[in-house]
Amino acid sequence: MALSGIVGQQRAVSFLKRILKKEAVPHAFLFSGMTGSGKLAAAVEFARALNCQSPQDHDSCGVCGSCRKLDEGLHPDIVHVRSDGAFIKLEQIRELVKRFRFRPFEGKFRVVIIHDAQRMMELAANALLKILEEPPEANLFILLAVESQMLLPTIVSRCCQVRFQPLEDRIVAERLVREEGLSPDSAAGIARLAEGSIEKARWFSRQDQAEGWKRVIERLESLAEISILDFFPMVSDWAKGRETMERDLEFIKLWVRDLILFRVAGARNPGQDAAGSGAALTFELNARTEQAARSVPVEHLFILYQRVELAMQGLRVNANLQMTLEGVCLAIKDFLYGKGNWNSFSKRGQALSF
């Protein structure tokens, strides 16, 4: 593949090709956009074009020695930095500094691609900032991040920013049909859920997600009647599933999004309407949730959606998991079902009272 083969990101690709044409390459780039939108593929293809031995139309040829080595993962001047555990650590940035003592082995540039740059610990980010302030010759950095706001402003200011937009549903569906073997109907439905991310679409297409989706919906709908005494134990138990929490927050966001669609478009079954025929991630509104979605101001639903987005961002930077989930569930309880809907007693306590 070449830069021209990156699908659905014409503006970003055109901008990068103009830079290659002018041969005035900045020392650092920040590629931002949702996971699965093509940032990494574009970074690799830009690195390929920079070091291609026989470039064609300001793009890589795909057949020279440099291009072939990159395809085989053997190019000595393409360096990937990924998080070590949850974070990118200071030691990893220090290892880069050691490489900078030497010129690139065979290419015009040594290209350092930093995955999930928002995961850099503070010391690592400050160490990288020092490098960017006095960039070593013939070395180029490409930082990949979901949002530029998740990085130090001083780092962002030293990078040429390239924004990657969510992919069109049509592009995502075509990839699912071609690469995952899904039927066109299922692929189209999952593409709508994926919000422009091919990685998220592949994730949604897995069979084991349907059961997790069902459990999340049941917990959300239970918030309509749950007592204050039962609320915190329920959330505490939910938060024990640390390994699935990012997935569950994605499901909550999807649920709120579909409530907004129901409120605005009046679809009786927003999950089915959004998922389409053949997709497993569907739900039918229960009467209490349907009534709530109809009666609350639509602005409250948009605020709720934003709360979930902020919770997901907090989780990515290691926010307290249980407090994050409590905040989301409290917001759903209050914005959707009303602050006056709290009952001081559990159902068992109510049964014993008279």
Q: Bin the strand percentage.
A: 5-15%
Give the CATH H-level superfamily of the largest domain: P-loop containing nucleotide triphosphate hydrolases
CATH class of the largest domain: Alpha Beta
CATH topology of the largest domain: Rossmann fold
Count the beta strands. 5
- Spell the H/E element sequence: HEHHEHEHEHEHHHHHHHHHHH
Instruction: List segments where confidence is low: pLDDT < 50 over at least 5 consecutive residues.
Output: 268-280, 344-354
The whole-angstrom Rg is: 24 Å
Architecture overview:
The protein is of the alpha/beta class and 354 residues long. The chain folds into three domains: 3-163, Rossmann fold (3-Layer(aba) Sandwich); 169-204; 207-350, Zinc Finger, Delta Prime, domain 3. 55% of the residues lie in helices and 7% in strands. The chain has 17 helices and five strands. The chain has helices at residues 10-22, 39-51, 65-71, 90-99, 122-133, 153-156, 169-180, 184-194, 198-205, 209-222, 228-239, 245-265, 270-275, 287-295, 298-316, 321-337, 347-352; strands at 28-32, 78-81, 110-114, 139-145, 160-163. Strands 2-3-4-1-5 form a five-stranded parallel beta sheet, with helices on one face. Strand 3 (110-114), helix 5 (122-133) and strand 4 form a beta-alpha-beta unit. Helix 11 (228-239) crosses helix 16 (321-337). It starts with 9 loop residues before the first helix and ends with a helix. Residues 268-280 and 344-354 have low confidence and may be disordered.
